[in-house]
Amino acid sequence: MAAIKVVLRDARLRAKGIPSKVRQWIQSFMDSREASITSDDFETAILPLENAGLAHGSPLSPILFGFFNSDLVDQPVDFNGGASAFIDDCFRWRAGPSAEANLKKIQNEDIPRIEAWARQTGSSFATEKTELIHLTRNKKEHSVGQIIMNGKFIKPANTAKLLGAIFDKEMRWKDHVQQAVNRATKVNIALGGLRHLRPEQIRQNKREVNTAC
Fold it and tell me: Is the full-model pTM beyond 0.85?
């Protein structure tokens, strides 16, 4: 999220019609930040954060990042496709008569636009984290084609994770349900192990874990 700091932040906000006083307040929010780490009765020294970017956990951060990537996702959402983003998770989808037709539009129209936006803003996309998936009940379409982004080939995957949800090719949601079951099982086991502990034992275990880390 430090990407918004390295671009012309004030010019971008001004182009969106943000008043001068608000831009000054945003600059104050983002600059000259310090931090320390606290655990129980231990606290580190307060140190400055260089190139901190946007603060994690602040409700203002998603709004500001929306201004940053608005040019990337500002396009119609209709029966032919659309685009959206949350913080630095961007996704583009195409709907058409075949996987091959969708891939052609993604490769010839969408990827050039994405790469141009990255050059203009000084951003970069992690190709190793970029996923391609065909959502269809037609099994013959599941592994059709590939796309090229930043000179690297990306082939269709069996599943794709988006904002915590696991999409499978046929939209059966079995993988997503299994993920939820696994997480619930782990939490249940962990809680079961705490039921016989006294409060002072829990605090001691927490300190031991922090020391080990």
Answer: no
